[in-house]
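Let us walk through a complete example step by step. Step one is to write down the protein sequence. Step two is to encode the small molecule, zinc ion, as a SMILES string so that its atoms and bonds are unambiguous. Step three, shown after the inputs, is the structure prediction itself.
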Amino acid sequence: MECPTCRKVYQLKIQYDQNAQIFDWPICFECKECGDILEFTYGQKGLRPVGIDYKPQQGEPPVTTLGYSSSLPITDEVYLKELNDTESMVLYSIFFNLQRGHFTSEEIHAFDIFLRQMQENFLPYRGVMKALLPIMVKGNTAAFSKKWAGLFDIKKYKPIETARKMKEGFYELVEKSYLNIIPSAYYKNCYQRYVQPLFEYIKSSSFEDVKSLKERLDESGKISLWYKDTALPYVVDRLNDIQKIIPSMIYASAGVSDVQQRGDLKIVTISYKEAISCYVRGYEILIKGLKTIVGVNNLVENGNIDTFTNPKLGGITSITKFAELTGGKMIEHLENYVTINSFLDGALNNKVRNAAEHEGIRYDATNQHITCHYDTKDDSKVYELSLIALCKMCYIQLLHIIEITLLARKIVEKAQ
Ligand SMILES: [Zn+2]
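Step three: the predicted structure of the complex.
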């Protein structure tokens, strides 16, 4: 295919999988020659827009080749490399490439099982919540009920009659979506270990205790407003666009926290620009939701909402004072709080956020490396990461924002 702007020719090597036949998948990369962001879709009808296909002839000089998979990371040897026909045939199995020093065949197999489950139970419905949210906010139960039946293609349905049932139905969808976008390793390593005990705590607490917990959390801004006005619009957007970050989910599936450990991998389903804006938005929302998870965890771990484990900063004598800190200070304060830190799993990286805020990020599209100059006073201070690592952070942010949304809602519901 050709870059529509500068006419540079690219050869696309697509890893064919069962997904490709069912959905349209995003292809996104930056043109090596002119820097334009090239976006295509690949699916049932082949590559679109149509007419951009390019097939190299045997014996032609090397062509810039892009390996593509809708759900797996791409290894360096097929990321925008000059390959001739034979080389590109030899190097093109993305599946095989990944097994050479990046992931074991067991890990890839486990990820494949997760992908199949997501493909069946979630991907066809990924846009449903985005379509329903504005109607729920408007509070029109009849319209909600009708739209719901249409989206799920239900012929005979029991109409949703009360606002309560409508909300319950919506949050159930969010919860089901969540369960379908987390791999089993994440379920074991994070959900069961850090999140479930908080839900159990709320469940087993008395009405009075939950009511007072809610009042304490609300001192620094109502938690119900956080999830209704801030978290939910973000969550439905991200779920609708989930296909853009699927290749980055393999780390959570393999139980890998540090992306770098598994070598220099690429992602070709999202642009850097979109990934960074997704990260910054997720960061701000998660920071504002943090007090809920930290407050409840303080209660579970220390029996007091205001008692932090191994607090770093002095003078933070209450959850309210904590909630008033800047994001950077919150993260600093929690540095030695093992439970919370393990839960966060690097999803709140202040250096990346600061650099983005001050336009201190350099992105190199030829290797997908991101350099963050996070200190405006000292340009030599840099933090480096890859695009796929950034996407993994966006993914973990999304999971945490959903978890806190569901937890905060449980608190609000029980305190009524
Ligand atoms: Zn170009």
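Step four is interpretation. Residues 3, 5-6, 8, 31, 33-34, 36 surround zinc ion (CB under 6 Å).
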